[in-house]
Amino acid sequence: GNSITVDPASGDAVLNLTHSSQSLRIDQNSLRTTTNSSFTFLTNSTTALTLDTSQNATFAGDIMPSAENLYDIGSASVRWEDIWADQVYGRSVYVDEYIYHNGDTNNNIRFQASRMTLQSKASGSAKVDLHDNGNLYLNSGGGTTLTLDTSQNATFAGDVYVAEATNKGQLFFGTANTDYEIKGGGNYGYLSLNAP
Questions:
Q1: pLDDT at residue 57 tops 90
Q2: Which of 26, 66, 78, 173: disulfide with 13, CB 3.0–4.6 Å?
Q3: What is the phi/psi pair of residue 103, to 5°?
Q4: CA distance 39 to 57
Q5: What is the Cα–Cα distance from 134 to 6, expressed in whole angstroms?
Q6: Is 18 helix (H, G, I), strand (E, B) or coil?
Q7: DSSP 8-state class, residue 181
Q8: 26 touches 13 (CB < 8 A)
Q9: What is the pLDDT of residues 62-90, one digit of tens each?
Q10: DSSP structure string for 93-144
């Protein structure tokens, strides 16, 4: 039948099970099986946790901390390699450098010490580049297309086109469209000074 013995050499308590070649050994530091098999914990006759021979742990329920906002999973020096989840909820998310799109890693958000960028492609890229000094750069085709600085100045690296579906466009300078106007239509265009 079942029996509990003590191994004189190690001092381990050994639980021998009837109709099984397995034994359970218990010492002051560990609880282990003596054969190559998984180890299962049950609560109310239902499996709660299984430890297999590859040291994988399978939980049948949630993994919960004993207190709110107090304990970590991993640390800055010992990190988990990958986390696979359908949905992730958090109050704050801290990222060292990149957030990648799973289907195309050329699409990413990158965080650096003094700037962050939103990038669409590695080459011939479209990029939004925001610096800590308040300047915003829009890149297209690998170069800076537009720079917006902290004095609300806009610097274009190329031409500026204003057009509508009717082949007409207007560009106003001033307040409430009352100062200077550049207007084009058809095959002509003009600069006018509007009445204040």
A1: yes
A2: 26
A3: -80, -20
A4: 10
A5: 73
A6: coil
A7: E
A8: yes
A9: 999 999 999 999 999 999 999 999 998 98
A10: ---SSEEEETTEEEEEEEEETTEEEEES-SSS-EEEEEETTS-EEEEETTEE
Q: Could you tell me what percent of the chain has a pLDDT over 70?
A: 69
Phi, psi of 45 (to 5 degrees): 65, 20
Q: Which tokens belong to 172?
A: 């106003």
pLDDT at 196 over 50: no
**Is the model's pLDDT at 93 over the cut of 50?**
yes
Q: Would you say how long the chain is, in residues?
A: 196
What gap in Å lies between CA 119 and CA 3, rounded to an integer?
Answer: 66
Residue 115 CA neighbour count, 13 Å, CB half: 12
Confidence of residue 33 (pLDDT cuts 50, 70, 90): confident
Element (H, E) at 146: strand 143-148
Strand partners, 111: 116
Q: Residue 106 region, left (φ>0) first, then alpha (ψ -120 to 50), else beta? A: alpha
As a whole number, mean pLDDT of residues 46-71 equals 92
